[in-house]
Amino acid sequence: MKDSTGFTLFELVIVLAIIAAMVTVIAPYASRSNESLELDNRTREIVETLKYAINLAEIDNQRIRFYLDTNRKSFYLETADEDGHFPLISTSVGRERYLSSSCHLMDIEGFEMEGQCCYLEFDPMQSWPSGHFVIFGNEFQKKIEIQSKTISITDEGAM
After folding, report:
1. Is residue 2 part of a domain?
2. pLDDT, tens digit (0-9, with 9 covering 90-100), for 72-117
3. In a domain, 104, yes or no
4. Is residue 4 in some structural domain?
5. With contact defined as beta carbons under 8 Å apart, do 46 and 108 qualify?
6. 3 in a domain, yes or no?
7. Is 20 helix (H, G, I), strand (E, B) or coil?
8. Is 38 exposed, middle or buried (0-12, 13-18, 19+ CB in 10 A)?
């Protein structure tokens, strides 16, 4: 009888079969996790932008609009100039940002309509706005609610 120091072909095949089975089971969870992370990132960016708009309106005493463009799947801020026009804010937080192809918007309520866009206006001389919308992906959705100066996120789970 030989003294063997390696693995047999049968042992290697068994190990590869176990690894293949584990990958098959884990792969769907990994893709759902990536979608969930993408949705979390976009939700976080939207909330940061809304908080920035509220702070800018309050501290600088400016009229600020938070826009949702459902066609372009983007969001951005505009501030009122002396003539009452609303040019785009060019700061990193206020600039136009896009949702990923897997993220969508729905159930937008309390926003003013302007063409294909809708907006909330934060005006320190008026009452603060209220509204909400849902951002969702293939599997998950989150509701973002704006009540006066408070922003809340509700995880509405799997679709």
Report:
1. no
2. 999 999 999 989 899 988 888 889 999 988 889 999 999 999 888 9
3. yes
4. no
5. no
6. no
7. helix
8. middle
Cβ-proximal residues to 70 (8 Å cutoff; 6+ apart), any chain? 105, 108, 116, 117, 118
Enclosing domain of residue 80 = 9-158
Q: What is the pLDDT of residue 139?
A: 79
Query: Across the strands, what pairs with 144?
Result: 133, 153
Q: Which residue blocks in the chain are alpha helix, DSSP H?
A: 9-60
Task: Tell me the β-bridge partners of 140.
Answer: 158
pLDDT digits (tens, 9 = 90+) for 8-67: 888 888 989 898 888 888 776 665 567 788 888 999 999 999 999 999 999 999 999 999
- The identity of residue 16, as a single letter, is L
Rounded Cα distance between 138 and 96, Å, is 24
- Residue 135 sits in a domain whose CATH number is 3.55.40.10
Q: Tell me the C-alpha distance between 133 and 143, whole Å.
A: 6
In the chain, the number of structural domains is 1
Beta bridge partners of 141: 136
